[in-house]
User: Fold this.
Amino acid sequence: MPRESRLPVPIRNALPEGRILEDPATRLVYEYDAWSIVRNPPLAVAFPESTAEVRNLVRACIESGVAWTARGAGTCLSGGATPSGGTCLLIETSRMDRILSLDPEDRIAVVQPGRINLELSRAAAPFGLHFAPDPSSQSASTLGGNLAENAGGPHCFKYGMTTDHVLGLTLVDGEGEVCRLHRDDGLDLCGLVVGSEGTFGVLTECELRLIPTPTAVRTFLASFSSMEAACRAVAKIVSSGTVPAALEILDRLSIEAVEASVFAAGYPKGADAVLLVELDGEEDEVEAERIPVLRAVQSEAPLEVEETSDPEQRARLWRGRKGAFGAMGRLKPDLFVLDGVVPPSKLAAVLAEITAIGREQDILLSNVFHAGDGNLHPNLSFDGRNPGERERAMEAGRRILKLCVDAGGSISGEHGIGFEKIEHLSYLFSPTDLEILGEVRRCFDPAERCNPGKVLPLGRACGEGSSARRPGILPSREREDP
Amino acid sequence: MTSPLFPGDPVELADLLKEGAAQGRKAFVAGRDSRAGFGADPGPIDLRLRLERMTGFLRFSPEDLTCSLGPGTTLGEFEETLSEEGLAFAPGPFHGCRERTLGGLLAESPPNPRGFDRAHLRSQCLGFEAVDGRGRRFAAGGRVVKNVAGYDLMKLFVGSGGALMAVTRLELRLIALPPVILCLRSDWLPPLEAAGVWRKLRRRLPTPSWLDLVLDGGRACVELGLAGAASHVTELARGSGLRTVAEGLEAWRGGGGTEIPAGGEVRGRVRPSEVGSFLESLGGNARGRIHYQGAFGLEVGYPDSLPPAFRGPPSLEPAAAKIALRLKDRLGGILAPGRLSFRIPRPLPERGRRVR
Ligand SMILES: Cc1cc2nc3c(=O)[nH]c(=O)nc-3n(C[C@H](O)[C@H](O)[C@H](O)COP(=O)(O)OP(=O)(O)OC[C@H]3O[C@@H](n4cnc5c(N)ncnc54)[C@H](O)[C@@H]3O)c2cc1C
Assistant:
């Protein structure tokens, strides 16, 4: 600890020496997450190893009047893991990465939150099990971060979001108390905590459901000369009753970026859209399901269809999808990944409008998305050094999210609200809705010191200032009050 | 008992609750009140409200596998409409519940054969509009199947037993009705033997639609639901060693199984690996079902024989109880003052009374 420490004494004493860093280089490293728009160097970065140490830290923060933000791998795309301000302690969970138990018969694992998602599945693999939620960041992101964000991923179309795989958790709440919550408690406080983006407390243990790893997997790549045809094929697959493990689409610009990059997957370059479909299960199940899938795809006159169950070929087909965000780096130095959701039946129409918005704002716009559940990821590529470009990208983002809500959807399917989307909450929620969300939050964290400024605007009157709307899920013009 | 009022829309309901709160009354909101007397004691009530006039589909999007419903819509009405469209509700079957309202069903969240993992009742509610215990109208979630905007208040509603809010509009997730559905059963066996069959099938079948260990006092059987493509389902059925008792929609709705319903009053979860010792502790005095992941709903003859963890209300640790009570105070207001959730059981049957 440097002698001229700025840290309040209770915080300094909360962990053994050397596990709180406050040097400028460390603070710089942790000043933002994968959403780079807002940057706040933390007061210091703490590396606890146990629930008791997190509790000590949180209590020390309370005593010192300091706010805190928990951080896993920092891959959050909405600023959730960015320190809430310059006087905020960052609680980093990389040293809390143990698997505390793994019970193959009951298919339950208890893990610390700093464990990386893919590493849990690797540990469960010898038992024929895996952890189903698979955000594309799964080789880096932590289970604590996944729970806090209620992360999704390509395979959540079939298997559900992270919340569907959580049985219990331990949380150090905003008052420094250790709460053990279980799905069977009656009131599902555990389910409420999942997706709360670190604003209810710091997760210190997670009890997770593992599922049997499918013995057969088949992946299809179909390319189309129009995005509409790809979207129609998705609708036909879904309505056939088949539940593919994944249904992903990339548009023309994404295909070109991928194919020009190290993630090249052999996607047909002239196509307007490629559709990746994955079926998994037992061999005869997959065999039976491929028929309706192929029928749906063929009915939309695809340019090409590739089908494989060979692990290497499958990995190749997925490489382009998983590397798509990385490949965007070729287009422009800055990337703003959006996360809107629309009803799947409106995909094609909304995508056409999104393209028009990109054109109007003169922003390079590509789409890579989870088509089965209507979760769009419009990618806005820009160069922040060029005057006005960042602002135009932000404006395009704002208009796209509004468009999603107007189509009956949402402003976030999996990346969370964080700092990024707070100003867009009023598209979805009335002042009373926000007031109630704020009250719920304060049941866990009365003083709002736990990751403040994320998910909801700061302060008790959070509903004030948002557009005057009647309460309801629907935009007010659509709600029919009796 | 005060006679119930039947608000016809959310505004009326909100006005009644606002007025009730101003007068310091204690309110209880139900669907058709078909569960009166079940669940945790709501405490003394002088304002009874029933939502059975708020009924029907408010929006139906088969192509998006979603719909909006009035909370007073009955399960029977709901399932009928869905099957006409080749759609289904993922959880169930809810034995003998066709007259129950969807609002009530979600608020109770009873254990049910298909209700695990993604098919749990709590994962079907995508959003809602509601009135809290102070008469404030609010909404949460949305209408799309994937949405993380705002806190997941849907989880708070499902299972809350009407203690926190009265929902006036439900947004639900639907699934396509699987092309082939089979319900299969074993013979009646001694409970431990049936448990052995259940555990073996549990290991063998990665994704059954349901797999229940059905207890009937001193005997038990295994009931298996399979759904999916014809060739696959037939193959699994052949390898299961059980006999087919129902097919198609009949099987999906619980027909052909035993008469023993899911959702008994003693509820909890047992680890599948510990089901043998759990059965031994019950000593042949339970009737009900243990589902695929170990959730159970039982009628128990000698409750004192239950392992301590399953006796009495589920115990919340102090820090969790603090949070639950705050939620009750801030959101629940005058609603069901004695209740935090449906699941806290009422006093169990008297010692020694046999169920059958
Ligand atoms: C290339 C790329 C691809 C991605 N793909 C997907 C995808 O497919 N699906 C998807 O859902 N997301 C995706 N993401 C977003 C991100 O990876 C997920 O949100 C992930 O769950 C974040 O995990 P993390 O460990 O990085 O958490 P962080 O970024 O460190 O934190 C995320 C949030 O969780 C909170 N938090 C972290 N740990 C704790 C804890 N122990 N207790 C309480 N709160 C905590 C933080 O305060 C913050 O609010 C992607 C991101 C990238 C960069």
Remarks:
- Chain B has two domains: 11-16+28-176+317-332, 180-310.
- The first strand of chain B starts at residue 27 and ends at 30.
- Chain B touches chain A through 87 residues (CB under 8 Å).
- Chain B is about 25% helix and 25% strand.
